[in-house]
Amino acid sequence: MFSICADPATIEGLPWLLCYLTTGKHILFYTSFGVVLLLMLITAPAALAFGFGGAMAARSHFLPLSLIGKAYTAMVRGVPDIIFFLFVPIALDQGFEYLRHKVKCPDWDQPIWQGNDFVVCAEAKLPLSSSPQWIHESYGFTLAVLAFAVVFGAFAANVIYGAMQAVPRAQMETAEAYGMSHRQSFWRILVPQMWVYALPGLSNLWMILIKATPLLFLLGVRDIVYWARELGGSKTSHFDYPHPDWRVWYFVGLLVFYLLMTKLSEMVLGRLTARLSHGQATFAGEMQRKAAR
Amino acid sequence: MKKLILTAAALALTAGLASAQTVRLGTEGAYPPYNFINDAGEVDGFERELGDELCTRAGLTCEWVTNDWDSIIPNLVSGNYDTIIAGMSITDERDEVIDFTQDYIPPAASAYMALSADADVKGGVISAQTATIQAGYVAESGATLLEYPTPDETIAAVRNGEADAVFADKDYLAPILAESNGEFVWAGEEIKLGGGVGMGLRESDTELRDKFDAAITAMKEDGTLNAMIKKWFGEEAVVY
């Protein structure tokens, strides 16, 4: 990066450290913070959508739909995360490739399962093996988002389901008395009021999501914990910048990052709670009303 | 903006041109000098040089991919990359699941490395990387096996006293021992394990295996492979 860094063996002290911290590998480490943040920002709304869908299905009066909703939350919540993350992306990937194979190579005569091997024609590969590496990485990232959304969606579904039940019955009765249809009272009365009940549970999930990102490496996405471990490990003179085991410093760095994330989240969630409590028939809403008077 | 459009167009063009089959080489990237991620963030090491040379000789376009050691075989058979070139020893158990080319590193010694030469390698606590032939050997040797997902952690375990010794390929341990300023020494005796290091492929991929096999044979015959082994593993390394 800098001209003085051309021959790392000859420099020492502060310039050495500066050069060390700007190697290509460190740049990858810094960008992986962006990857993790991006993952959280995409996963959170996606998981919320899965959760909302799951909760709506579970509340449905149509029996099969409500069974699907309940089965989804029960199954995903019951299976250990690590198994889920190993299984779902590979299964999704093979599922997609299987479908593409059926469409794109109808006259393929070999079996798809050959012993342990999963073999589809080259055109059905997802992504194509000739695609550049960044496409492979984005695809892996997408699978990761999907897996995270499915898992956290199940937990969110349970939280939202509970929150919907917690809205005072009197509110719904009033809506019915005004002549609102079932659909109208759901969207206009129930949904706006349930958020304040769902927020504590959802904020827990958000905090867990922040800390769950190291699972990304199971899915082939190189996240901050992977890089911290890789960079911190002791390096022999095969490397340009040999050093002893420095993992503790890298992990201290991660600790600071995670604490900052937690602090920031708490501030945002605190504001959100205050805002959602406004005008609600809850203790917090009542306190706000009295304070404003 | 113009530059951006140009790059995008160039990308689209090259994507179209690269219709020739790309072979994706899977490696661990944490096992110097076999394979590691260098300071520029790229795969480097003996296997990087070897793999590139083999691909040139076989006329293939190759791309490097890194994968966790634990899931390196499942991801091969499900087709996420086409070969494993990660210092993987040829064993009967692995051969049941995947196929190997002929060995490109002859069967080499595994060794115990400890803080003192009289460490108890037969009854003490020995660290080894998960799912390696060394871990399998320790489990049967009567010692207590302490497994870690990456090779680097097995060394750290000895340094901080969690394990009495680490058991791994001697070629991996040698540079670490040499640069430890006398902190580490060899313990016990060296043991020959496995049938050499080969490239792993899917069992259904016989065509690709034959291509790599032919390239390895050619490299063995003209002596380039021996030169490469000596360059990365030192003059005393076992050669063909």
Q: What CATH first level of chain A would be assigned?
A: Mainly Alpha
CATH topology description of the largest domain in chain B:
D-Maltodextrin-Binding Protein, domain 2
Largest sheet of chain A: 2 strands, antiparallel
Number of domains of chain A: 1
Instruction: List segments of chain A where confidence is low: pLDDT < 50 over at least 5 consecutive residues.
Output: none
Number of strands of chain B: 13
Question: How many DSSP H or I helices of chain B?
Answer: 9
Strand order, biggest sheet of chain B?
A: 5-1-6-13-7
Strand percentage of chain B: 25-35%
Query: What is the helix tally of chain A?
Result: 10
Overall description:
The complex is a heterodimer of chains A (293) and B (240). Chain A has one domain (25-292): MetI-like fold. Helices cover 71% and strands 1% of the residues of chain A. Chain A is built from 10 helices and 2 strands. A two-stranded antiparallel ribbon of chain A has the order 1-2. In chain A, strand 1 and strand 2 (117-118) form a beta hairpin. The mean pLDDT of chain A is 87. Chain B is α/β, with parallel strands linked by helices and 240 residues long. Helices cover 39% and strands 26% of the residues of chain B. Chain B has helices spanning 2-17, 46-58, 72-77, 92-97, 133-141, 151-159, 170-178, 206-221, 224-233, and strands at residues 22-27, 30-31, 35-37, 43-44, 61-66, 83-84, 99-105, 109-114, 125-129, 144-148, 165-169, 185-192, 197-201. In chain B, helix 2 (46-58) crosses helix 8 (206-221). Residues 5-19 of chain B have low confidence and may be disordered. Chains A and B meet through helix 2, helix 4 and strand 2 of A and strand 1, strand 5, helix 3 and helix 6 of B.
